[in-house]
Design a protein that fits this description.
The chain is of the alpha+beta class. The protein is built from 1 helix and 3 strands.
């Protein structure tokens, strides 16, 4: 009986993780150029560099550690 209760609970927990995972995962946009702005992401500890599209002003944060 307990295994039948455990399966729905596990499914809910996995679904909740993906729904509530609000960390920034970045995008791979084109036209971005690296800037001199660098910081350490407090969540992952990775060194991040700001990339900017000069024509639109769009900014993305991409890991320098990869």
């Amino acid at each position: 009986m307990s295994i039948l209760l455990g399966i729905p609970v596990a499914v809910v927990l996995v679904a909740a993780y993906f729904v509530y995972d609000r960390r920034y995962h970045g995008k791979n946009a084109t036209g971005l150029h690296p800037t001199n702005e660098v910081f350490r992401d407090p969540t992952t500890g990775k060194r991040m560099r700001v990339h900017e599209n000069p024509s639109t002003g769009a900014r993305e944060y991409i890991s320098d550690d990869e």
